Amino acid sequence: MSEGQHSRLAATPSLEAGDSLWQACVEQLAQELPEQQFNTWIKPLSAQVTDDFSRVTLFVANRFKLDWIRAQYAGRINAVLEKLYGQPVQLELAITPRENTVRTYPAPSVVAANAPVAEPADIEEDPASAAFKTRLNTALTFDNLVEGTANRMARAAAMHVAGTPGQLYNPLFIYGGVGLGKTHLVHAVGNRLLADRPQAKVLYIHAEQFVSDVVKAYQRKTFDEFKERYHSLDLLLIDDVQFFANKDRTQEEFFNAFEALLAKKSHIVMTSDTYPKGLADIHERLISRFDSGLTVAIEPPELEMRVAILINKARQENAEMPEEVAFFVAKNVRSNVRELEGALRKILAYSRFNQKEISIQLAREALRDLLSIQNRQISVENIQKTVADYYKIKVADMYSKKRPASIARPRQIAMYLAKELTQKSLPEIGELFGGRDHTTVLHAVRKISAERQQLTELNQQLHVLEQTLKG
Ligand code: ADP
Ligand code: MG
Fold first, then answer.
1. Which residues are CB-neighbours of 374 under 8 A, at least 6 positions away?
2. Beta-carbon neighbour count of residue 422 at 10 Å?
3. Cβ of residue 178 lying under 6 Å from some atom of ligand 1
4. Are residues 310 and 284 in the same domain?
5. Residues 275 and 204 in one domain
6. Protein residue with least CA distance to atom 19, ligand 1
7. Which of 36, 142, 152, 184 to mutate to test the pocket of ligand 1 (most atoms within 8 A of CB)?
8. CA dist., res. 436 & res. 149, Å (int)
9. Residue numbers of the domain that contains 42
């Protein structure tokens, strides 16, 4: 181990180690829980760990969440902590003190994880102050969003909007797979605009939250306030609009807000997991509105970009990741940035816990589970991405209904590889390709394997793809 790292560890042992204990726990839970649950309940938690690790206090935003976490997750969290630490850990839950950080607040009310909450807390946002909440995460900025071929267009368009909102590219529609930085990018737009114009009314909202706002306004008959709130914005950032599917009332309200905002030259930035015409169960008139400004994709990051992201993020954590280690990790963790972050967290925690310097060997050990899973199985998702990359089409076209040969053929190739390289059945594969019939998959498999015998060029391409996928 290097001197530098040693002294840094020695200087603040409890904070660093406590931090990594909690991070290791979070990492574990991220693997166990469905993503949605993890993001909603676990990710927002912050933890305070006592010097001797005997007690961990988790801070949650409000009473409702506290009850829920205690009922649903406290047992498991406790078990994971104890397993990681190797000794009993007492878990407590507390409500985050309002308008104050955990560190500076004198005495937050703390309750043991299994005790009833004694103190009633006023948790409902009052509507007046909620109207001015931006819901922006100030940590997500352009500065810490690494640029690469995969996000260049989207990033440039987003910066343009942040600089001169209400003019070009309205609405801006950003789409791409999970964990590619869509949410980060829209927050960056909001943060940049507010930095330039602190008075601007900016709101970030996840589409699901918008749905629940509509429902609430409906139940409480507060549509006037709802409208006033939304229609008065200068910038509306709305995330994951695919969640509007089948929500008629919400779609109608969103349509109204949309029209009102565009009319007064306010800007709208949207994200989605697919391009507008690929969206299912959303009214045609909304889809055509979505597509009326600029639509840009974020693609999975290429190798160099993955390396840059790793090195960058390690620096943000005050750790130095040698380039060769970053390459090793980037070659093995390919699908998205969220997974890269997960891998990095594991490596950092492993390095801190074991007081070892970051090396390829250490990375290999820290990521053992992940690497062996990857070696054992290739996912259909991975095949779709790799094939789409290779033939320069959109990943979304793997599930789209489009038929031109330039798209249909790579799709058939991907189906063929899915059958060849995974354990999935024909109907399962059909399902993963936008709900296609198993006979369609069978047809593709037969066609490509027959052609493979005849066409040297195709055979060559398939060979490259197989090698890439097998790693
Ligand atoms: P999405 O909304 O597309 O699912 P997110 O915006 O939540 O993805 O990104 C997942 C994680 O990866 C976030 O922590 C985000 O900060 C990080 N991230 C994504 N893209 C980049 C990038 N280009 N540079 C740095 N961090 C990134
Ligand atoms: Mg997102």
1. 332, 471
2. 18
3. yes
4. no
5. yes
6. 181
7. 184
8. 31
9. 3-118
What is the distance between the alpha carbons of residues 191 and 196, in angstroms, rounded to a whole number? Answer: 9
Instruction: Note the pLDDT of residue 11.
Output: 34
The last residue of a domain, from among 269, 297, 325? 297
Structure-token match 């600089």, residue found = 163
Q: What is the pLDDT of residue 132?
A: 57
Q: How many domains does the chain have?
A: 4
- pTM of the entire predicted model: 0.60
pLDDT at 113: 53
Q: Please, which pLDDT band fits residue 232 given cuts at 50, 70 and 90?
A: very high
What does the angle CA 292 – CA 298 – CA 299 come to, to the nearest 5 degrees? 135
Residue 426 in any domain: the answer is yes
**Amino acid (one-letter) located at 310:** L
Which residue, of 350, 375, 400, is where some domain finishes?
Answer: 375
Which protein residue's CA is at the shortest distance from atom 11 of ligand 1? 338
Q: With 0-12 CB in 10 A as exposed, 13-18 as middle and 19+ as buried, what is 435?
A: exposed
Whether residue 176 is contained in a domain is answered as: yes
The pLDDT of residue 192: 97
Give CA separation, 156 vs 142, 162, 235, in Å: 10, 10, 17
Ligand 1 binding pocket includes 309 (Cβ within 6 Å): yes
Instruction: Look up the CATH number of the domain holding residue 18.
Output: 3.30.300.180
Domain shared by 61 and 158, yes or no: no
Give residue-wise pLDDT tens across range 55-75: 999 998 887 788 888 888 899
* CATH (domain of 321): 1.10.8.60
Token pair 């509007």: residue: 244
